[in-house]
Design brief:
Blueprint lengths: L1 H5 L8 E6 H10 L5 H11 L6 H7 L3 E6 L9 H14 L4 E4 L23 H14 L5 H15 L5 H6 L3 H14 L6 H20 L4 H6 L5 H14 L5 E2 H14 L2 H5 L4 H18 L3 E5 L2 E4 L2 H14 L3 H8 L8 H10 L4 H14 L4 H15 L7 H20 L14 H6 L6 H25 L3 H21 L3 H12 L8 H27 L9 H23 L5 H9 L5 H5 L1
Parallel strand pairs: 1-2, 2-3
Antiparallel strand pairs: 4-6, 5-6
Amino acid sequence: MALECNQGEFQPNYVVIFISLRDFAEDLKDNSDFSFLKYISQEFVSCGIEAESTPNILTEGKALILLDGLDEVPAGDIKQVNQELRLFSQIYYKNRFVISCRIGAQKYKFPGFTEVEIADFDMQQAEIFVKQWFVAVAHESKEDGESIGNLFINQLHLPENKQLRELAITPILLHLICLFFHTKSEFTFKVAKLYEQALNILLGRWDEVKGIQRQSITENFKLFNPKELLAQIAAITFEQEDYFFEQEQIQLLIYQYLSKCNYYVSSNLKLVNQQLQDSEKWLKILEVEYGLLVERSHDIYSFSHLALQEYLTAKNFVINYQEQSVNQLITHITEKRWQNVLLLTVSMLPNAEAMLRLMKQKIDALVANDQKIQDFLLWLNQKSNSVTTQYKAGAIRAFYLVCVGRALEVCLQTSNQVFGNSSSYGLERAMLGNLAFNPELAIDEFLTSTFACAGELEFACHYILNDAIVFDYAHALNIAFDKALNLVVESKFRQFLYNLKKQLPNAQNHPHKFRRWWIEHGKFWSGKFRELLVQYRNICHDWQFSKQQIELMQQYYSANKLLINCLNASQNIAPAMREEIEETLLLGIAEIKN
């Protein structure tokens, strides 16, 4: 604001005066007869402006006075600074004043001022920040800076970087993410390390850089570890699905932690009202001076970022690592909201072998008692073993599970993915990256996709009235069929498929007639197609899973993908254990025992 005022782009008719309230408080301590008027006059004199000019400018209301960092004033000086500020703004009320302060410092109120909260970045603003950061901060050329910035933005929008996007709306934390990215030009760093650095910044590193001394912190936080306090609060509230919590609830959690640390014994504090005062004091420190807890509405709090709450929840499991607590954590393995917590916990443990083994056992047990799913897993392994490829068997099983999921999705006629699809970051990619072209895998993928197109056409012909849309589905089936035919090598199978395709009437000229034909003959045609796929490729079996079984398989797939991500993020894992998990991935219970 000061720079834009000087450049004539903001309030150009005013003289801008920028004051660091922390610096003002320091000078105020050395001189009891000190005021804003004297402080400004001295600054003007040092800039070659006569002392008499100051009162004239202020009296005539020609100044834009920017008072920066009220929350940075030491606690012992804040009362006197507030008095000076109130008096000064009342005497020279004709001028424009702006006071900046952290959001949590709600106790500072000044008459005549309008309270405005600076919003977080939206993603468009974050992207502008990133592109400029790599030029201005990383000192890249304009062309290189924008290129790296575009790479950063593209990777930031990948599904697996959702938590980083949440942090990126806060400028300080976006700056930190840019620093991490700049070292490797990709998000290959340990996310837990990024969160730890973010926590350090919010817990005082930012103050250290700016030379701010907070008396309440230096005196009192030596008594316990603030990260452990936050981790305990995060774990308890996250377990209860409390993303927003009342002030009484969080004060109770703070009191319980302080009691555990023998804080009250050492401080000789026994009265209940004193205990409540202490917990309220620590709540305000975490809110006002750290910004880690935010009062969203009156007496309703939350963590400043959900990603930090997840990280601190994981940190609590690491701090208090016991077999019982790990077993409790693993019970959440099928719940989507716990996936990041599990992944972060594994990545922070010095040795996560025991936890990974328990995760594997829990995942296998999900489908152990469903005979139909066990039969399906037996087929999955047999089919995968019939394919000649350089990839591990677990990755091929994952590939065929995704293919089956695509067909099941059409059966359910939902828009949600069942297991992911060939273009998504599925389990097979979590294991091995993108699968290179393999003729047998490609044939099965295209044939499964073609069969799924037939299922979509079946739905369209019966439930969509618009003939133009029906034509689109018929056209998609023809395109998919042609691609599949081009890959099929076995002559007899190819001839059968060609004859089947010839039975389809022309949909382009007569879409309404095509609909009638499909309603009368489509189910029989699809049945013949399925018979050929089962006979020649051993795919597209009619498993007749119930909706509940499909949902269970979806949980099973997601949990296995999480397991592999955890395996890749963990430290000090023995090669033999890694091989054991990968080799038994997506196997039925009987085969695992064998």
